[in-house]
C-alpha cells in the first residue's frame, strides 16, 4: 500500500457460485489496489478465481460480498445498464474469443463503442477508428468481416475496439489463450506499448512467461491472493505453498532497537524488507556481531538450532520509523518446513544470495483521469 | 440409473423452460389449427347428414289445393311411399315483444302428437302444443322476443286478434326444404299448432301441404321424383291440384350448401395451415439446434458418434412433438366443440354428441411426430458435421468464401448508418436460410389472415350487390289482390311515396323433359324494365318490355336442368296448368342456399295466369332516398295505417332492407365463420411470429453480452433487437400482403363455387392488411423485447456462457 489513492480498489471481494452440487466460494475476501498506469498480470492456475476476479473488476459479474471502486464510482452499486454505459466510456474489455460482432466489419466493430458512448462527434469517429487500427496494425483488414480474419487479427481488432473511447483502463481475460506464441507476442507488444503510453492494463493469464512481462503480478490461488512479496522472493514455490506462507506472514512496522530474536518460537524466521532500508544487528553465540542491510524485497531466512537462545537480531537504532517488513515467526515457519521440506532449499537459496528485488508496484506513470 | 445422454435430453427440455415452451407452443398451435379444421370438416358433414336423417325428413313436399283426408290415405298406399302426412300451412302476423308486427308461418298438423315426418326436437317447454297453444322454432325466436309460457298475439286476415300461449320451443331442421321457398334464412318465424286450433284462428280445417317419406332409396332424388310423380297422379285423380313440389334426399339438409362452402374453405385453409405449420416447426428447430452446436462439438470431442448425437436430438424432438400433440389435441377438441355449437346454431343443424375425430387425431399425431423430425434432421446433420474446434470455440467460420450477395454488398456499403442500426440490419440478413424460413412462415400466416378478410369483403360485396334485387323501400302484401292502378293511385297520394309498382308472383313446378317435376320455383314478376331490380347476369339478358313469355332463371336451375341457358324452353306448371317459357337469361342470386327463383314481367305472368292486372304484392319507393332500416319500418307503419284507413287489409308491409338482410343472413354466417378462421390463423401466425422472434433473440444472447461489455445500455440493446424484429415484421407483412391476393382468390373461389357454382370478383380490403401490419409490428416488438429484456437482466458472464 502506498497510501496514495488507487485507480481501482477491490475490497473484501467474495464470490460464491451456487451449483446443483452446493455452493462454491471462488473468491474469498480479496483486497487489492491497482494504480493508474500499472501493467498487471493476474495469474493463477485454472480454477484459482482469476477470471472471476477480472469479471468483478469489469462488472461483467456481480460479487456476493465486497466492492470494486474505480475512481469515485462503486461499480456494483450501478444497474447493469448504467454499468454498461460506464464501462463503454472507461474500460475496454478484451475477451479470449475476441467476441467481435460477426455482421460488422472490423472498422464498424471499432466504431460501435463510439456510437454507443457518443463521446466523439459522429464525423470524427471513423478517422479515430482508422487511427486505432493503424496503431495496432490492423488497418489493412478494416473493411473485412471478422469471419474472414485469423484469430490473431481478430484479437488485434478487438484491442482496437477496446481502445475506441480511449478508456484509461483495459482489462483482458486470457487475451492470448486462443493464439499461437508468435501472435501472443505481438498482442503483448501492443499491451506494453499501451502501458508505456499510460493505460492501466490488467490481464489474466496462466502463462508465467507472459505474466513476467508485466510490471506487477497478482497471483491467485484457491480464491485468495498470494502475497506478492513472497511470490517475488520465492518464485520456485508453488502457488499453494506461497498461499500457505501468505497465511503465516505478518506485515508490520519495525521499531529501532527492537529485538526480533526474542523467544525462539516468536522470533522472526523469515523477514522481508518492504518499506525503507532495514539494518539488522546480529550476534552469534560466539559473540561475533554482524550488520545486515536489507533494501525492500531483500530478506533473511534464519533457522536457529533447537535450544539456541543466545542469537540476537536487533533492529539498528538508525532505522527509519516508517520501516515495514513481512515477518514469519520461526515457530510457524519451522512447522511449515516440516510439512514442506523441499521448500527449505528455495528459502535458503534466496536468503543466501540476498537477491535484490525491486517491486514495481509503486512505479508511477502518467495516466488519464476516469471520466 | 438414467443414462447421461438421456439425462441430457431431459435437461435440455427442462433446463430452458421458456425455450422449450416456445418450441412446444409453435408446434402445438399448428396442430391445434389443423385439428380444429379437420374436426369441423368431418363433424359438420357427418352430423348434418345424420342429424337431418334422424328427423325422418319428408322426401317430397307438395302444396296442394283441396287435399282431402281420403286422398291422404290413398297417397299412403302409393307404391314406394312409406308414410304421408298432411298439414295446413298459412301465414299470419304476430306481435313481437318490440311491438312490431312480423310474419309468422303457422304449421297445423292433424295428429301432431304422433307426427312421424319432419320430427321436431323439443328444446324447451312441452310438445305437442294443445289447442290454442303454439310451439315456436328457435331460430326466429329472438325476432318474436317471446319465451315459453308467454302469450303471443296473432292478427287474423280480417284484422281480429287471437292470443296463443307459447307451449314450447323446438328445432325444425326441415325449414327451407322446399325449393319454391326462399330457403332457411328467408323463411319467416315458424309456429306449430294442432289442427284443432285452426277454426279458432279463422282457418278452414282443410290441408294444403303434403309431406311424404319414401319407403326406400331415400337418398336417391331420382327415385323420389318417380314416387312423387305417382303421388301427384293420385292426388289429381282424387280432385286435388298440386301447386308446387319439391323433392329432397334424406341426407340432404336444406343448408348443406353452407357446410359445403365451409368445408371448401376449411380444405383450403387446412392445406395452407399444414404448410404453415411445417414451416413453423422447421424454423423453430433450426433456431433451436443452432443453439446446440457447442454441445454437439463437446459430445463429438468425447467420442460421441454422429448416430448417437443424432439419436439424442431426434429423441428431444420426439418429446417436443409428443408434448405438443398432448397439448394441442384436447385444445383442438375443446375449440372444435365450441365452434361446432356456434355453426350448428347458425345453420339449423343438430349436432350429435361430440366425439373426437380419429382421423384428425391421427393426422395431428403424424404431423407432431414426422414434421418436427424431418424439420430437425437437416439442422442436426449440419450441427454434427461442423468441426469440434468450430463448435466448442464459439467461433463460427461463417464460410464467407463465396461472393456476398448483392444485398449483403449493399449492406456492407451502407457506411453512414449508425452502427447499432447496421447491427440490426445485417443481423436480419445474416442467415438467409433462416430468414427465408421465418419470412415464409410469417408471410403465409399473415397472408391467410389478410385473405380471410378479403373473402369476407367479397361476400359483403356480394351481399351489397344482392341488395340490388331488393331496391324497394317497402314490400307490401295485401290480404287480397287489387287492381295495380288503384293501389298506385292511392299510395302515390302520400308525399312520402315516390313510386309504387305492382308485382305479381306465382309458385310453379319445374318440369323436366321426362315430364317429372324437378322441383318448384317462385316466379317474381315486376313490371318490365322495372328500376327496382338490378340483376347479376351470368349469361343472356334480363326480361324486357315486349318479350313474350320470356323468363330469367336463377343459377340454381342448373342443378336440376343441367346446361339450361338463354334460348332454351322452360316448362313450368302453374296451378296445375303447363306453361312454356323462353329462357332469356340466367342470373346469380344467393345460390344453393336460396330456393329456385325466376323473373318474368308482370305483363307476361298476368297474361299467363289471368290475374287481370290485379295483384296483392306491391313495391313502394320512398320520396326520400337512402332510407335506413328504421326509416323504412316507419314508412311501412305509415303506409299500413294509411291503407287500413282507406279500407284495405294489409298482410305485411316489410322493410326492403329486412328482405335483403334475411336473404343474406346465410352469407353472414360464412363471414362470421371466416372471421373466426382469421383469428385462428392469426393465432398460429402470432405464436409462430413470437416463437420465431424470441428464438432469434435467444440466439443473439451472446452478442447482447458483447454489446453490453462494450458499453451498450439496456435501452440500446433493446433498440437493436426491436429494430431487427420490426424489420422482419415489416418484410413479412409486405410479403403477406402480396401473397394474400392469390390466397384470397383461392378461398373466395372455394366459397363462391360451393354456394353459387360460379366465382365472384375478389374484393380487397385494407382492414386485414392494416390489422396484420399492426399485429406484426406489435408482436415482433413484444416477441423481441421479452427475451432481450431477459438477456439484458443476465450478467454478461452468464450471457457469454449462454447456451
Question: How would you describe this structure to a colleague?
Answer:
- The complex is a heterodimer of chains A (371) and B (803).
- In chain A, 31% of the residues lie in helices and 27% in strands.
- Chain A has 371 residues and is α+β, with helices and mostly antiparallel strands.
- Chain B has four domains: 1-56 and 263-397, no CATH class; 59-247, no CATH class; 399-466 and 663-803, no CATH class; 474-626, no CATH class.
- Chain B is built from 22 helices and 20 strands.
- In chain B, a hairpin with a 5-residue loop joins strand 2 and strand 3 (101-109).
- Chain B is elongated and about 100 Å long.
- Chain B starts with a helix and ends with a helix.
- Chains A and B meet through helix 2, helix 3 and helix 5 of A and helix 12, helix 19, helix 20 and helix 22 of B.
| Cα-atom radius of gyration of chain B | 33 Å
Strand numbers in spatial order across the main sheet of chain B: 2-3-8-5-7-6
**Overall mean pLDDT score of chain B?**
84
Q: Indicate how many domains the architecture of chain A comprises.
A: 2
CATH H-level homologous superfamily name of the largest domain in chain A? P-loop containing nucleotide triphosphate hydrolases
Sheet with most strands of chain A: 6 strands, mixed
Number of helices of chain A: 11
Which percent bin holds the helix content of chain B?
Answer: 40-55%
Indicate the CATH architecture of the largest domain in chain A. 3-Layer(aba) Sandwich
